[in-house]
Amino acid sequence: MNKGEMVERVLADKEAKIESKAQAERVINAVIDAIALGLKKDRKVSIIGFGTFTVRNRAKRTVINPRTKEKMIAKPSKTVKFKVGKSLKEEL
User: Burial, 7: exposed, middle or buried (Cβ in 10 Å; 0-12, 13-18, 19+)?
Assistant: First the structure.
């Protein structure tokens, strides 16, 4: 599912009482922005029943360029990890 399909799904939900595609997209954008802000500020966002997003530090490491087979050093970086919640895991 991509963002456009998610907007359509939110728009189709009668309980949400969202009347336009633009309004549904604003809701989706607000949720994404809230998750991103939470990760920047607190480094962890938990949505009960769905899962937890956390920021992880990746150490510097040796990688291989697949085109040239040359070894290079990848800089330390940050990445987001998602741990699925119990309710979602049971549904899947």
Answer: buried
Q: Which long-range contacts (CB under 8 A, 24 or more apart) does 81-90 make?
A: 81/53, 81/54, 81/55, 81/56, 82/51, 82/52, 82/53, 83/51, 83/52, 83/54, 84/50, 84/51, 85/47, 85/48, 85/49, 85/50, 85/51, 85/52, 86/49, 87/49, 87/50, 88/49, 88/50, 88/51
Nearest in space to 53 (alpha carbons), one of 67, 40, 69, 64: 40
pLDDT along the chain (92 residues), means of 10: 93 88 94 95 92 95 94 94 94 90
Task: Say how far apart CA 59 and CA 30 lie, in whole Å.
Answer: 32
Task: Quote the pTM value.
Answer: 0.77
